[in-house]
Amino acid sequence: MSAMYEKLAMPASGLRLHLNENTGGCSKAVLEALRGITSEDAALYPDYTEATAALAGRLGVPGSHVLLTNGLDEGIFAAALTTLRGGAPAEPFEAIVIAPGFDMFPGSSRRAGGRVVPVPLEADFAFPLEGVLAAITERTRIVFVTTPHNPTGLTVPRDAILRIAQENRGLLVFVDEAYIDFGGDTLVDTRVLDAHPNLVVGRTLSKAYGLAAIRAGALVATPDTLGPLRDSVPPYSINIAAVRAIPAALQDTAHHSWYLAEVRESKRLMYAALERLGIQYWPSDANFVFARFGDRAPEVTAGLHARGIYVRDRSSDPACAGCVRITTGVVAHTQACLAAIEEVLCGAR
Ligand code: PMP
Predict the structure, then answer these.
(1) Tens of pLDDT along 241-297?
(2) Rounded to an integer, what is the distance from CA 296 to the centroid of its chain?
(3) Is a pLDDT exceeding 60 seen at residue 32?
(4) Inter-residue contact 48 to 68 (CB < 8 Å)
């Protein structure tokens, strides 16, 4: 892949269930906060103190442990740049990524001059701890882990991540927790981070808080670990919209809880329908479900597309033949998607 990231088609209308976006929209409190931006605010370089404190407070860590980024994507790129640049052309530094996984990890690692070492998931998409440990060489500088994993939705055991960090103090273990609000075990805990200075956790407000277009993410680690990462992020990469949106989104706990409940119910409905249809799926800790439609996957994807519903066929990923990833957000959207799947698979009624 030459680009850092494959930007998928963005249909202006229809049901976008292919990018794990928040299908419920952000809190109204966010819109209110955005409306409060004055012309003077827009003219000044923004101050990050309040937004950083709000996120740190929510995460239960000191503000010094949080670096705001322009979406988690920027945090991933900053981590790749910090750890991988400067290797000899013949012997570049190495980044370990899990395959299948999120495109940004190999994309930004290559852009930073590193060599990508993919480690395949084990049978049934289990996390390949032994494979990761065996792939580490003296040139490895960073290991990218996602929990819950994208595209499978499976949680990576905390102990496995900590073992990689403990046994390899010389490299950075980057834990992408983009979907952690929906389930799984977070590593954001001051004691854990302080005991593992080579651990950095990535967070985003794109998913559970619906701020994907605002671009609001963060890296969480000890101040010393964040130092070089901070140096790889432009000083004003977070704009005033994100600065105002972050505290407003975090304060509206009712909206957040509502969306988490919608996702939980959507997954329950999705599992029940897939079981009825005899389709294999993996119980997910994220806001999407990964299911194996086998050789009917192209028909399902195309049939949904024809009905204005977009899902992500991951068949070309390693060991994912016939697998489709479907966002499970607002219950009414999931119901529409499930009705369309049944229509495609069982014929119109
Ligand atoms: N990490 C993972 C694992 C993701 O799936 C995504 C979004 N697809 C991101 C990070 C990007 O987050 P952000 O919108 O904050 O850049």
Answers:
(1) 999 999 999 999 999 999 999 999 999 999 999 999 999 999 999 999 999 999 999
(2) 27
(3) yes
(4) yes
Q: Degrees (nearest 5) of the Cα angle 245, 248, 251?
A: 145
Exposure of 109 in the CB half-sphere (CA atoms within 13 A): 24
Nearest in space to 70 (alpha carbons), one of 243, 195, 199: 243
Given the CA of residue 217, which atom of ligand 1 is nearest to it?
Answer: 15
User: Which band of pLDDT confidence, cut at 50, 70 and 90, is reported for residue 347?
Assistant: confident
Residues having CB closer than 6 A to ligand 1 are: 20, 71-73, 102, 146, 150, 176, 178, 204, 206, 212, 217
* Strand-pair partners of 290: 282, 325
Place of tokens 């140096």: 231
Tell me the pTM.
0.97
Pocket residue to mutate for ligand 1, from 16, 68, 104, 180, most atoms within 8 A of Cβ: 104
Measure the CA dihedral 262/267/273/278, to 10°. Answer: 170
Q: Taking 90 as the threshold, does the pLDDT of residue 89 lie above it?
A: no
Taking residues 109-117, what's their average pLDDT?
A: 97
**What was the pLDDT predicted at 1?**
46
Mutate to test the pocket of ligand 1, among 22, 55, 72 (most ligand atoms within 8 A of CB): 72
The residues pairing with 291 across neighbouring beta strands, listed in sequence order, are 281, 324
CA dihedral 45, 47, 52, 54 (to 10 degrees): -120
Measure the CA–CA gap between 147 and 290, rounded to whole angstroms. 15
Q: How far apart are CA 173 and CA 318, in angstroms?
A: 23
5 pLDDT tier (thresholds 50, 70, 90):
low
∠175-59-161 over CA atoms, to 5°? 25
Bond prior to 283 in cis (omega within 30° of 0): no
Q: Which atom of ligand 1 is nearest to the CA of 216?
A: 15
Report the Cα 243 to chain-centroid distance in Å.
20
User: E strand or H helix at 16, and its extent?
Assistant: strand 15-16
DSSP bridge pairs for 176: 146, 202
pLDDT at 125 over 60: yes
The percentage of the chain sitting over the pLDDT mark of 70, rounded to a whole number, equals 96
